[in-house]
Design a protein that fits this description.
Blueprint lengths: L1 H16 L10 E4 L7 H7 E3 L11 E3 L4 E5 L2 E8 L7 E3 L1 E4 L10 E9 L6 E9 L6 E6 L5 E7 L5 E7 L7 E9 L5 E7 L2 E8 L7 E9 L11 E13 L3
Amino acid sequence: MYSASIFLALLPHLAHALPGTKINKRSDILIPTTCFDSNTTLNEYFNYNYPWGDTHNGAAIMSSANAVISTPGTLTLNATYTGGSDYAYDSGTVWAKQAFTVEESGGLDFSADFLAPVVTGTWPAFWLDGVNSWPPEVDIAEWKGTGDISFNTFNTSSVVTADDVYYPDPTEFHTVKAEFRDENGSDVSIKFYLDGTLITEQYASGLTGQPLYLIIDLQMEGSSGSPGPTGTTLYEIKNLEVVSQNS
């Protein structure tokens, strides 16, 4: 009886040692929810502006002064109307210092809570852009001044999957999550969630193995229409987390 007890106690360890035993993947946190706790943690994980400069497809020019930790735990991007002839707004954008890649048989999870403006002329987004080329692009969350939230995947400039859904009470924080999973060593499935509910599933052709920038920005006008607000517009983000399912 004593020997049998020892054998039973060792069974879990023996299972890990046996050839062919299935071992669950480990989730690795690449960006923790503490990333916006202070300016120090913000600068540990993010750069200011865009990877390519301080402008992109809209009426705002970006500055580090407009991307601040307003309260511990919350990143605030603020767009201020200046009325400039070239760029009518000063605003803020940050992008992650680490590039993200869905590996074969792996995946990535992106999630955060957002307080996002939805009025005409405001264009906040939380998105991934190809490091080596465009496309690919995946808009994990995009608001284009219509009252909706958009989930988009660009396979080419003309092959685009876009789902626009009603965005509830924009005066409250809402949680967005996207789960990226390799399907076949080349293509990636993406499940988009809003406040814990699966909204849509899209597919990115050839995305496996491609490095991606993560960008959080408050652009103005452009695709969100005009004229935009003439005061100050705020876009707040908290509890951001990026988790790798690759290992």
